[in-house]
Amino acid sequence: MNIEKLMQLLEAKHPGETEYLQAVHEVLSTIEDAYNDHPEFEKAKIAERLVEPDRIFTFKVPWVDDRGDVQVNLGYRVQFNNAIGPYKGGLRFHPSVNLSILKFLGFEQIFKNALTTLPMGGGKGGSDFNPKGKSDGEVMRFCQAFMTELWRYIGPETDVPAGDIGVGGREVGYLYGMYRKLARENSGVLTGKNLEFGGSLIRPEATGFGGLYFVKQMLETAGTSIKDKTIAISGFGNVAWGAALKATEMGAKVVTISGPDGYIYDEAGISGQKIDYMLELRATCNDIVSPYAEKFGANFVPDKRPWEQKVDIALPCATQNELNEEDAQLLIKNGVMCVAEISNMGCTPEAIELFIYHKIMYGPGKAVNAGGVATSGLEMTQNAMHISWPAQEVDARLHLIMSEIHAQCLKYGRDSNGYINYMKGANIAGFLKVAKAMLAQGVI
Ligand code: GLU
After folding, report:
1. Ligand 1: does its nearest atom lie under 6 Å from the Cβ of 248?
2. What is the domain count for the chain?
3. Which of 136, 141, 238, 240 has the fewest CB within 10 Å, making it most exposed?
4. pTM of structure
5. For atom 9 of ligand 1, which residue has the closest CA?
6. How many helices (H) and strands (E) does the chain have?
7. Which domain range does residue 38 map to?
8. Whether residue 191 has its Cβ less than 6 Å from ligand 1
9. What is the pLDDT of residues 406-430, one digit of tens each?
């Protein structure tokens, strides 16, 4: 495989799609040796076939706001690869959403889903709709309008969307209601549903919980433990909430959360009712974290990111490229020992390079945050069997899956000097599974 040539080709074909090109480059550059060990991959042009989505749907979403004005948004679904199972991946509603972001997310999802051990392909979708400041009625009308287009392309055995940034239980409910009406079926076509109509216990917590199960194993493999460690978390949504809950339960101390307005530093630790308050804050939809400081008497640092604080562990839980080279330098200077992305592609390539150079434990999103989609896979299984498992069963399976992902990273990521390159391990393990499936199924 000639990576530089393939990247040049992609850059020419998809100019300006920076996030997508970044995600592809990261994977290709880490799997190169494994790829070249298999001449049959090159012969079947696996890399060239893998980097392009199977298909992309783009559609218009017209809807009427509370003032009676007509609004027009764009909707997308990227069906990236279904070699090992139905397309699976969330929907993101955020004004920044564009094709590059959804293609990067869909591409990452292929390998993440392969790592979960469950039969799920990769996909992603969403809209540039901004949920900030929208009424409940507006969110419902938007979701209904979105689904009147999307429903044709998805199905419980074809493509199973879920939540992501801006899409939580409420949005999944509205989307599911419209799908059910149009398709005249009750099925597991979306995951992240409420418990009353097919949702799975532990799904809301799963991304954060799974992330902490993974981090605990990273630390234990390095001969230390998570107990009494200080943790910086970014974001204050569902993922940050689940991570704070599990980290606190494991005996660590979470000292930061953040929003687009800045970050909170709470020296006493963000625990108990302070964690519950994150959900309340999120529900107001103003997308600001500063009210936490007023309520609990903590520090609010406007327009800054939490990475300037001295902590043992940093957990990006907000969005892509939210931790850059400068942030990485500050964390390293302050003695960070572990950085694990619970957001997708949370660190820039320059930041990752620094962590690896300094032999800091670094966990990539596609391994660390796979617990979310894994539990979505468990929701699909429960829906297909028309039963629901108790919380302990789902949690036990989530635990097992995260351990298996960690083991795969060790298998493929251990460097000759003993350093565990989790990024390389996750990319190779995920890639090999998908590549072998593609090879076995012929050129299609
Ligand atoms: N959006 C989540 C992710 O990035 C979950 C996707 C899902 O549950 O399908 O993996």
Report:
1. no
2. 3
3. 136
4. 0.97
5. 89
6. 17, 12
7. 1-52
8. yes
9. 999 999 999 989 999 999 999 999 9
pLDDT digits (tens, 9 = 90+) for 299-334: 999 999 999 999 999 999 999 999 999 999 999 999
**φ, ψ for residue 302 (rounded to 5)?**
-70, 145
Among protein residues, the one whose CA lies closest to atom 5 of ligand 1: 373
| Ligand 1 centroid, distance to 74 Cα (angstroms) | 20
Residue 283 binned pLDDT confidence (cut-offs 50, 70, 90): confident
Distances (CA, A) of 71 to 135, 140, 231, 285, 363: 14, 14, 41, 19, 40
The answer on 179 and 118 residing in a single domain is: yes
User: Is 203 a pocket residue for ligand 1 (Cβ < 6 Å)?
Assistant: no
372 C-beta closer than 6 A to ligand 1? yes
> Is residue 251 domain-resident?
yes
Domain CATH number, residue 181: 3.40.50.10860
45 is known as an active-site residue: no
Q: DSSP H helical segments within 58-119, as ranges?
A: 99-115
Same domain, 43 and 60: no
At 80, the amino acid letter reads F
Task: Please identify, among 125, 153, 185, the residue that sits at the C-terminal boundary of a domain.
Answer: 185
DSSP character string of 354-367: HHHHTT-EEE-HHH
220 and 336 assigned to the same domain: yes
* Cβ 344 under 6 angstroms from ligand 1: yes
Judged against a pLDDT cut of 90, whether residue 155 lies above it is answered with yes
